[in-house]
Each structure stands twice: as C-alpha cells, then as structure tokens.
Amino acid sequence: MQHDLTQALAFAEWLGKHFIPVLAVALVLALLATTALVIAYRHSSVRNAWSNWPRPLLLGVCLAIGAGILIGTASLFAEMLEAFDADEEIGRFDERLTETLARELSPAALRFFGTLTHLGDPMPLTLLVIALGVVLLVRRHTALALGWVVACAGAGALNQLLKRIFERVRPVHDHGFAQADGYSFPSGHTSGSLVVYGMLAYLCLRLLPPRWHLPSVLLAAALAFSIGWSRVVLQVHWASDVVAGFAFGVAWLTLCIAALELSRRFARA
C-alpha cells in the first residue's frame, strides 16, 4: 500500500512538471478518437439497423443502458468519496499535483487558461442555452428545444445537488488568475461545458449539412476537454473533481441524447 502511494505521489510530481505538454497530447488523442467516432457513426450500418427494432425492445435496451450508466457513475462517485481523505491515495495525489502546478506553472500559462475557463462560466452557458432555445422554438423544433433546455438545466441542477452531498473543499488558489467559491466535487465547469457543448454538437448533427458535422463535434470536444482541465491548471479544482465532472457529464449527456433519439424513433413509428 505504501509503495503504491509513493508511486502515485511520484507520478503526480512528474505530471505537475509536464502538465501542459501532457494536456496537449491528450487533447490530440481525444480529437482523434472523436474523429473516429464521427466517421464510424456516419458509415456504420448499426445506425440504421436499430431503427427497425420493435419499440418495446428499443425502449428496454435504452432503459438498461441508462440504468447501467447511472449505476456506474454512482459507484465511481462512492469509491472516490471514500478516497478523498488526505491520508488516502486519491487525496494525496490531488494535493501533490496541485502543489506542483502552483510551483511550476508560469503566469502566461495561468493567464491563458484563466481566459479560456470563462467559456465554461455559468453566465455565458446560460445565455447560450436561452438564445439557442429561442431559435429552436422559432424554427419549430419544439422537441429539440425542450431536450436542449432540459439537458443543460438538468446538468446544472444535478451538479449543485452533488456538490451539497459531497461538500468537498476546494484547493487554495491565490494566484489571482481565477476566482471560485463553493464546494469542489464534482467540477461544474467540466460537466456543464461537456453537456452544453456536447448537446450543441448533437444539434449540429441533427440540423446542419454533413460537411459541418465533424468540425462542430471536434470544436465541442476541444472546448469541453480544455475547459475541464483548465480548472486543474488554475488550481480551483482537484484533478479528481474534473474526472468526476467528465464522468457525470458523459453519463447525463448520453441519457439526454438517447432520450431524444428514442422520442424521434417513436414519433416516426
């Protein structure tokens, strides 16, 4: 156990010293994976095959997937809750990584990520949700407008609920490039950006010509990824807060998109 903790702390130290290049490589890999998924979606016969399933079977499969996602996310959160203590591996890893970042990062890097992180602030995201919701209603995409608002607002409400349940204190940050208050776990910037920009990419897939599909999804993925990890760079969240934010965001986004696709399938039947 002590050996594992020593290795985790050594890795946290190394990661903190090389965080920006590691982040850049991870972003490239994430965009490559996203590109592969979009290409597979556009050329896969599975996308068309499921539309011929009987409605009861389709509903059952969607419910099973949704339940599995929720149970998996809840289990992850429960495991992380037990490991938040400063004497446990995740808690010590978070602390060592944050301490190293505070020591190693330049003001220029903090300034850049301090500007980037505002794209995930509640106000711009809320304005985007309202504006696009109105546009969808005006263009008579009522179901999409409802799904868009419910997905984005629901993510924010559930995140606040989770914060109150876990009540994790944020790391100390006094560099002046970002301000944050309230509880830390899970990261609201991370989950909110992933859901809002992820839903925006889904709407682009539904409503825009095919030539815009890949660019819109890649832009959404880049924004969600970068905004999420900016919170660690700025030391306003622990790394595990951001991991949990991504997990919650992916789970909620998947459920919301599945519900919209299911409603579209039933409307056509």
Structure description:
It is built from eleven helices and no strands. It is mainly alpha-helical and 269 residues long. The longest helix has 30 residues, at 239-268. It is globular and about 55 Å long. The mean pLDDT is 83. Pfam families: PAP2.
A few lines on this structure:
With about 270 residues, the chain is mostly helical. The chain has eleven helices and no strands. The chain has one domain.
Q: End-to-end distance, in Å?
A: 57 Å
Task: Specify the structural class.
Answer: mainly alpha
Question: What is the number of E strands?
Answer: 0
Strand-residue proportion: under 5%
What is the H-and-E element order? Answer: HHHHHHHHHHH
Number of domains: 1
Rg (CA only): 20 Å
InterPro entries: PAP2/HPO, PAP2/HPO_sf
EC number: 3.6.1.27
GO molecular function, one term: undecaprenyl-diphosphatase activity
Keywords: Hydrolase, Membrane, Transmembrane, Transmembrane helix
From the structure above, extract its key features.
PAP2/HPO_sf; 0% strand; 269 residues; globular
Task: Describe the secondary structure blueprint for this structure.
Layout: H1 2-17, H2 19-43, H3 46-49, H4 55-82, H5 89-104, H6 107-116, H7 122-138, H8 142-166, H9 188-207, H10 213-233, H11 239-268
Helix pairs in contact: 1-5, 2-10, 4-11, 6-10, 7-8, 8-9, 8-11, 9-10, 9-11, 10-11
